[in-house]
Write a structure and sequence with these properties.
Layout: E1 8-13, E2 16-21, E3 25-27, E4 30-33, E5 39-41, E6 47-52, H1 54-70, H2 75-88, E7 97-102, E8 107-110, E9 116-117, E10 123-126, H3 130-143
Antiparallel strand pairs: 1-2, 1-10, 3-4, 5-6, 6-7, 7-8, 8-9
Helix pairs in contact: 1-2
Length: about 140
Amino acid sequence: MVGRNTTILCVRKDGKVVMAGDGQVSLGSSVVKGTAKKVRRLNENILVGFAGSTADALTLLERLERKLEEYPGQLMRACVELAKAWRSDKYLRRLEATMIVADAHHSFELTGNGDVLEPDHGAIGIGSGGSYALGQCHILLLLHC
């Protein structure tokens, strides 16, 4: 099950972006670690958060870095190219993870189905707790507008 026991939230408001995630790692029904780093900075401009298999997510992170080298300054294009490879490559297709990729201008959710989703309202939540965090985020954004 992709994203079980994980919450990653990315919020964009007033030209700023923040991403946060829990650190819980589960093995079956047991929590084996509570301090995993599920949000990473690729360079000074790009944040990546992931839910699902850690090894799979790190493999995808490496592939994203290569796409960003291939398409410098083009985050959307790099994400689309990664999603295309993820869906069509025999090896990558079996990876079970979901990613949020964000820079100062865009936030995207990437999935193994080939999805590259950009939110309408500046917030994305992934993992089993992502929808709950996203709901609370929308409430807070509405209250502070």
